[in-house]
Amino acid sequence: MANADSDALYAGKTILVTGATGLYGRNLIPRLLAKGANVRAVARRVPAIGFGAGVEFVAGDLKEPGFARQAVQGCDGLFHMAGTRGSIGIQIKRAAEMLHDNTLSCFNALNAAREAGVARVVYVSTVSVYPPGERYVEDQAWSANPHPGNEFVAWSKRMAEKLIEAFEVQYGAKNFAILRPVNTFGPWDDFDPRTALVVPALIGRALGGENPLTVWGDGSAVRDFLYVEDAVNGLLASYERGLGQGPINLGSGRGYSVAEIVAAILRHGAPGTSVRWDIDKPTGEARKVADTARAEKILGFKPKIGLEEGIARTIAWYRARG
């Protein structure tokens, strides 16, 4: 809920966005620019499509402590969203990279921000930190191990959350916000079937003409999904009102089955396509839905865009980009 008071947190401020070329970064940066912020964007490589005026792009690897310290210098705020992600299959195949690379980049970025005195920091964790369960409530994250299919990314994210907790214990730092978003999709997502998560992977394959469309599992797995525009609203609300409040889930609070996702994609993007369910492949947890009461209470967050509309918008954007 934008107002003059909240916009003062951005206008004329230098705000660092890590993972700038990813789904969150690409959608957050225009919003920050609209609020009058000076944006410093960090990613490992120079993107083929730039960010336009008002954005200082810096290429580098946050696994290097020196680069992390350089990136945060002179910044008033940080949205740390950089990380290596992927499907369950990729997370298992690249287990060591997922744990090592994500842990190093998170620790370096967060510690550099603390040392540099960055006033406001939003750290984007993940709902995968939770152990298996029907509904995920923030205080349950450490009650058991995360699901084996996500464990290496989940442990790196858990430890970065614990580092923020340690900052408060040792230094009294209360200027960090922790968000645990659910599976987010939308424009600028990764649609490469080899690396993409479920919604963009299915969109890419369906609109690419795959018929029948092969989908892992039987379609019964239930997940909580969030359109990226709503996710960015949550990021900004967390920057404004979520500091020092502990972890906060960011999701719709509603579960959608994979079968519903597939049906919506085919409806809006590839009518007439048949589906082949590959029940021999892993599907992850049966149900993963976030409790969103804390986000609503602390951030005033409620998603505005439902799954069907979000998928339709994403497909339209994907088609427009050729």
Defining key terms:
322 residues, alpha/beta, 7-stranded parallel beta sheet, 4-stranded mixed beta sheet, 15 strands
Can you describe this structure?
It is a single chain. With 322 residues, the protein is an alpha/beta fold. It has eleven helices and 15 strands. It has a single domain, classed as 3-Layer(aba) Sandwich (Rossmann fold), CATH 3.40.50. α3 crosses α5 and α5 runs parallel beside α6.
- N- to C-terminal distance: 34 Å
Number of domains: 1
Low-confidence stretches: none
Can you give the mean pLDDT?
Answer: 93
- Provide a count of the helices: 11
Gyration radius, rounded:
19 Å
Architecture blueprint of SSEs:
Elements: H1 4-7, E1 14-18, H2 23-34, E2 38-43, E3 55-59, H3 65-72, E4 77-80, H4 88-93, H5 95-116, E5 120-124, E6 135-136, H6 151-171, E7 176-181, E8 183-185, H7 198-207, E9 213-216, E10 222-223, E11 225-227, H8 228-241, E12 247-250, E13 256-257, H9 258-269, E14 275-278, E15 287-290, H10 293-299, H11 307-320
Parallel strand pairs: 1-2, 1-4, 2-3, 4-5, 5-7, 6-15, 7-12, 8-11, 9-14, 10-15
Antiparallel strand pairs: 10-13
Helix pairs in contact: 2-8, 3-5, 5-6, 7-9, 9-11
Summarize the structure in short:
The chain is of the alpha/beta class and 322 residues long. The chain contains eleven helices and 15 strands. Strand 1, helix 2 and strand 2 form a beta-alpha-beta unit.
